[in-house]
């Protein structure tokens, strides 16, 4: 264990060094020798893509498998609708295999009208039976039922399918309608759908598989795609690289058209390359998760809400943003609604967190809670110092520097945190068991722009286990429990009326802002990069929007 | 009889290693499902039932008693069926290893051999001609040996690949112009891609061989039998190679034997820097993902390789050095 960790640290140090090296290599640019078209006719050059693959690729074209190759779900297989979670709640999804859908008022039945005349790449017609087969298979197989709430499906005609949920499921509908649809005539012949790697995939999407090697694989344009004339690139090539440093080198050398790489201080790194641009695609709301609930076994000063509020007040978010996020972060709302996207769903009583520190406020909060300043400059109560261990995964450099900055800032307010770097597996295990005091991590977007997903995941007592029992390390890790919040989450999940949702969210927001089990730090926008020297019209999405991106690309 | 005793010893060592193999990964905190879940969470929205679905899929059954798992494990070793890798789900562990192993064996194996031969030869000459200008290669190579070699690799990448563009940045071969197999373009491309990684290994490890060999040469040269050989009027070359170098190289052979076994373990850091598709990469990923099946198989292969090479060298040693032969 020690061996591998130290090696890992060395690798991380190497990564950082390579990044700083490449950051100053402005003079070198290999012309795009890479972008030789391998398709014939009027198709454009093959897109060179890196989307975070490392190690060896596994030839797995089964979109129902968790280890499927990147963008098989999206380029070979399509969903009924594509939901863009960067747009405000209520935005209509983009139809793919579906044409339109209706949900009944109870939120239990969804009727979907399908596109007509769509064909699978082997020439078989696509019908409602394929859709019904897909959902019924997911429902009947525990290993595939990832929503835990897959509907019963019935093909009512060739182009209409009815999905029946067991309970009101407005929250699950986007995930279901955004699931890849597979052909019944192929998948029903598999011995075990969960482990079959589907080496000859038959899909409806714009691409079909090309070459595969463990280091790189390609997609070739599919001529049977119904909008094939709108697809310009002759294909895509995906790479496996060892990580950020190798990917950044390749990007700066002009060898990648499309890259999801988390580069620190990215704007400076790509400044000298006029062809490279970035688009924000995700909201990573960085937080301090506290084990907050003493009733369920949490121990330490952070079980007091006053301490959590004091930490929130003692943070100088501007400084954290500058030092850990290179100024790319934006203010965060204590309600975890994303500003300005979710403005309609955030109670006006809760502005975004101040970007400057207020140690005086932090101190008065602590003193009102009975803490007394000790001789070492750290508060104490009943012999217990206001000192907490803060776990962070080693190698996650942004989290580590944010914690180090906060450690200094908290000292001003008489609070001590002790950052502890641990291997990812250790941190994950500690979070699952609740055996931590403070952890730095993030909450991420849901399938559509609705804080419902954050509330029902991180604040819902349905996801709760006491400290010491193995729970979901990405669920309700703060051990927060409040019956009013549970009821409001349930009520919000049973309506699609935005105004009614906002009303329920106001109830939740008042309670979670007062209790603050997750201390908000900053909203760090995730981004994807592209090179527009060959293609223009780049529109990038968070997850699974590859088909939509592809349809908008034009040759420069 | 001596041979049997030796084999018996290696069998006991193998059994102990195999048992540790079983125990160590199980002492790691966490489980593969939660680690995959973490990756999925970062990649996009994750539905609430995902954790349970993955548990069913990976068959993470913790209710089987540990002794039963151990028996299953011993059975799997005997049959060569190491199960399915979680990192590369649903690929069998054996396939993961067989596709990564050739890269490591060829690159690290060949470079280790080159380093050893060149290092020992240079060391022989340096010891023979001690006190002349040849001695200056000692400090020069020792400095290179002392460099952290991932750093040296990064420097090579920066100057030779990024700045001058002479060598590829990363990877095992050019994935765009060739495909793996026994064909000209692929072999040429693989060799071209192997230059920098090989250079890194050779430069960073040759110093040790030279220094060790040179010092042994110096002390061997003062032995009586060398003086005798010289007095007999044998040619200097024969004295150097057959009398001095043959005896001086014994410790180097031991070192080489041990390093041979570790070739199979790959070169984790070098493979990271160059995105090289070898065992080291698979090893790192298996540990990061709590991939017990893959970890066990990799540990096992490394153990067997180290034991096996040690056995071979043990046997070979008695040919080289008659003193180590067991007395009947």
TrEMBL record, chain A:
Residues 1-25 form the signal peptide. CDD domains: PBP2_TmCBP_oligosaccharides_like. The keyword Signal applies. InterPro entries: Peptide/Ni-bd (IPR030678), SBP_5 (IPR039424), SBP_5_dom (IPR000914). Keywords: Signal. PANTHER family: PERIPLASMIC BINDING COMPONENT OF ABC TRANSPORTER. It holds the Pfam family SBP_bac_5. This is ABC transporter substrate-binding protein. GO terms for biological process: peptide transport. One of its GO terms (molecular function) is peptide transmembrane transporter activity. One of its GO terms (cellular component) is ATP-binding cassette (ABC) transporter complex. Residues 92-461 form the Solute-binding protein family domain. The keyword Hydrolase does not apply. SUPFAM superfamilies: Periplasmic binding protein-like II (SSF53850).
From TrEMBL, chain B:
It is a multi-pass membrane protein. It comes from the Bacteria. Residues 101-313 form the ABC transmembrane type-1 domain. The keyword Membrane applies. This is ABC transporter permease. It comes from Tessaracoccus antarcticus. GO terms for biological process: transmembrane transport. CDD domains: TM_PBP2. GO terms for cellular component: plasma membrane. It is found in: Cell membrane; Membrane. Belongs to the binding-protein-dependent transport system permease family. Gene3D superfamilies: MetI-like. The chain crosses the membrane at residues 7-24, 100-125, 146-166, 186-211, 250-274, 294-320. PROSITE patterns: ABC_TM1. Keywords: Membrane, Transmembrane, Transmembrane helix, Transport. Pfam families: BPD_transp_1 (PF00528).
């Amino acid at each position: 264990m020690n061996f591998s960790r130290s090696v890992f640290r060395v690798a991380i140090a190497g990564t950082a060094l390579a990044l700083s090296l490449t950051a100053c290599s402005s003079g070198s640019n290999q012309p795009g020798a890479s972008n030789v078209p391998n398709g014939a006719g009027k198709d454009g050059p093959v897109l060179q893509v890196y989307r975070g693959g490392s190690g060896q690729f596994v030839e797995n074209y089964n979109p129902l498998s968790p280890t499927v190759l990147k963008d098989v779900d999206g380029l070979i297989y399509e969903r009924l609708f594509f939901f863009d979670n960067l747009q405000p709640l209520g935005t209509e999804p983009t139809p793919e295999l579906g044409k339109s859908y209706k949900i009944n008022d109870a939120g239990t039945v969804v009727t979907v009208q399908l596109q007509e005349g769509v064909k699978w790449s082997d020439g078989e017609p696509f019908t409602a039976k394929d859709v019904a087969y897909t959902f019924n298979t997911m429902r009947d197989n525990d290993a595939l039922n990832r929503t835990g709430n897959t509907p019963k499906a019935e093909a009512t005609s060739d182009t209409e399918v009815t999905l029946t949920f067991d309970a009101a499921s407005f929250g699950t509908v986007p995930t279901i309608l955004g699931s890849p649809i597979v052909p019944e005539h192929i998948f029903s012949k598999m011995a075990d759908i969960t482990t079959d790697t589907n080496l000859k995939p038959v899909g409806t999407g714009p691409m079909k598989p090309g070459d595969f090697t463990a280091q790189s694989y390609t997609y070739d344009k599919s001529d049977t795609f119904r909008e094939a004339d709108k697809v310009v690139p002759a294909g895509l090539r995906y790479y496996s690289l060892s990580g950020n440093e190798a990917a950044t080198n390749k990007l700066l050398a002009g060898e990648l058209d499309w890259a999801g790489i988390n580069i620190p201080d990215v704007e400076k790194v790509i400044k000298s390359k006029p062809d490279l641009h970035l688009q924000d695609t995700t909201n990573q709301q960085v937080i301090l998760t506290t084990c907050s609930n003493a009733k369920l076994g949490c121990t330490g000063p952070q079980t007091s809400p006053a301490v959590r509020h004091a930490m929130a007040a003692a943070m100088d978010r501007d400084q954290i943003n500058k030092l850990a996020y290179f100024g790319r972060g934006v203010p965060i709302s204590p309600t975890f609604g994303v500003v300005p996207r979710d403005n309609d769903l955030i109670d006006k009583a809760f502005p975004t967190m101040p970007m400057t520190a207020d140690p005086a406020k932090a101190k008065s909060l602590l003193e009102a809670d009975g803490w007394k300043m000790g001789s070492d400059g750290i508060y104490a109560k009943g012999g217990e110092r206001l000192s907490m261990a803060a776990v962070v995964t080693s190698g996650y450099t942004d989290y580590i520097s944010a914690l180090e900055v906060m450690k200094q800032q908290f000292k001003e307010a008489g609070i001590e945190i002790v950052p502890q770097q641990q291997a990812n597996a250790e941190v994950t295990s500690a979070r699952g068991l609740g055996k931590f005091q403070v952890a730095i991590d993030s909450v991420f977007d849901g399938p559509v722009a609705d804080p419902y997903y954050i509330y029902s995941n991180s604040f819902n007592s349905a996801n709760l286990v006491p400290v010491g029992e193995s729970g979901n390390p990405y669920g309700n890790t703060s051990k927060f429990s409040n019956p009013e919040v549970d009821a409001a989450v349930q009520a919000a999940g049973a309506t699609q009326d935005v105004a009614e949702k906002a009303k329920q969210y106001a109830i939740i927001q008042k309670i979670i802002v007062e209790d603050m089990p997750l201390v908000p730090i900053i909203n760090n926008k995730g981004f994807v990069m592209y090179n527009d020297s060959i293609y223009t019209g780049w529109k990038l999405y968070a997850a699974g929007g590859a088909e939509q991106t592809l349809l908008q690309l034009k040759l420069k | 009889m001596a041979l049997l005793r030796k084999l018996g010893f290696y069998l006991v060592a193998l059994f102990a290693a195999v048992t540790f193999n079983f125990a160590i990964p199980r002492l790691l905190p966490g489980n593969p499902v939660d680690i995959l879940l973490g990756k999925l969470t970062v990649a996009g929205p994750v539905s609430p039932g995902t954790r349970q679905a993955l548990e069913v899929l990976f068959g993470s059954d913790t209710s089987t008693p540990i002794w039963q798992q151990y028996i299953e494990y011993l059975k799997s070793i005997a049959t060569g069926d190491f199960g399915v890798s979680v990192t590369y789900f649903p690929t069998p562990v054996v396939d993961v290893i067989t596709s990564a192993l050739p890269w490591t064996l060829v690159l690290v194996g060949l470079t280790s051999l080159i380093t050893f031969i060149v290092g020992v030869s240079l060391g022989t000459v340096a010891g023979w001609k001690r006190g002349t200008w040849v001695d200056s290669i000692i400090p020069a190579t020792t400095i290179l040996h002392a460099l952290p070699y991932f750093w040296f690799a990064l420097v090579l990448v920066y100057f030779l690949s990024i700045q001058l563009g002479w060598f590829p940045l990363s990877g095992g071969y050019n994935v765009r112009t060739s495909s793996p197999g026994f064909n000209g373009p692929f072999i040429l491309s693989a060799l071209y891609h192997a230059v920098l990684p090989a250079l890194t290994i050779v430069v960073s490890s040759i110093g040790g061989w030279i220094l060790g060999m040179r010092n042994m040469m110096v002390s061997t040269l003062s032995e009586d039998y060398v003086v005798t050989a010289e007095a007999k009027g044998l040619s200097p070359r024969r004295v150097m190679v057959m009398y001095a170098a043959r005896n001086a190289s014994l410790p180097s052979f031991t070192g080489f034997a041990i390093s041979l076994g570790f070739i199979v373990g790959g070169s984790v850091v070098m493979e990271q820097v160059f995105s090289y598709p070898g065992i080291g990469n698979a090893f790192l990923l298996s540990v990061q993902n709590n991939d017990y099946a893959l970890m066990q198989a990799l540990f096992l292969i490394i153990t067997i390789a180290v034991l096996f090479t040690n056995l071979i060298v043990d046997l070979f040693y008695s040919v080289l050095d008659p003193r180590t032969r067991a007395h009947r």
